[in-house]
Amino acid sequence: MVIKSVTRSETNAQRATNKLDIWAKINAFPFVRGCWRGDPQFVRAMFGGFWNFVNGFPQIIRDTYSSVPAGIDEKTRRFLERSAHLLAGMLAGMESDERAHRALWLRAARQAGLEERDLESWELLPEVRQIAETIGNEKDLYIRLLYFVSVELMAEGLSRALADSPEFLKLMGMRGMAWFRAHLVHEHGATTHEQLAYNLAGRIAHFQGRQSSEESMHEIVINGLLLFARAANACGERFIDSRHYTAVLA
């Protein structure tokens, strides 16, 4: 089997193309379209429906670098034990950022009329629970890190879609847009969470001797995004009155 050598610029170009395609798909989600219209029912369903994942994602990141997952192969176990300091150094910052994003999600939810107690008591749908369980229980660290990429692309795509909506901006106000701005504005030259997860996944693949291509990585990322798509559809069906759902999206 011949593996074609791919330059970094070619890889970046392909990822940029993939990202544009992903953003277009996120924009087309019916649930996102309802939020884009600034409809309070959709917006509250977003904050309440996805709270379980936003609340739990920082711990998933911590678990990824603070302990060696059970059930992994011995070779990967030795690598993780030797690289624990490096992994912790790279992911601890990501965890800290996500804890800050959790606080921004709470602030945004308040702008939509929801307090933390409302989010905590919000019905947890199986499709939303599955996001955290699928990512957190994934024993293959390479795949788990690519699921992290999915999370970041979903957050950025959602933020880009809603930040472009005058109706959503009017509903949320500047204070309520902080979570969304955090996923759009990056320090010049800083490594984004998406890039960090891609880089770590690449290191793991190299160590494992894995024949990882941009196409195979993208397929895993898409699988992660499908978790969010299914959860968004479930939130729309469960939390939005069916007649209102049809009327808003008509």
Topology record:
Elements: H1 8-28, H2 30-36, H3 40-49, H4 51-66, H5 74-82, H6 84-111, H7 116-120, H8 126-136, H9 141-163, H10 166-176, H11 178-182, H12 193-208, H13 214-239, H14 242-249
The geometry reads as globular
- How confident is the prediction overall: mean pLDDT? 89
Share of helix, binned: over 70%
Overall CATH architecture = Up-down Bundle
Tell me the name of the CATH homologous superfamily. Heme oxygenase-like
- The secondary-structure class comes to mainly alpha
Q: Which key terms come to mind for this protein?
A:
250 residues, single chain, disordered N terminus, mainly alpha
Structure description:
There is one protein chain. The chain has 250 residues and is mainly α. It has a single domain (25-249), classed as Up-down Bundle (Heme Oxygenase, Chain A). The chain has 14 helices and no strands. It has helices spanning 8-28, 30-36, 40-49, 51-66, 74-82, 84-111, 116-120, 126-136, 141-163, 166-176, 178-182, 193-208, 214-239, 242-249.
In short:
With 250 residues, this protein is mainly alpha-helical. The chain has one domain: Heme oxygenase-like (Heme Oxygenase, Chain A, Up-down Bundle), CATH 1.20.910. The chain has helices at 8-28, 30-36, 40-49, 51-66, 74-82, 84-111, 116-120, 126-136, 141-163, 166-176, 178-182, 193-208, 214-239, 242-249.
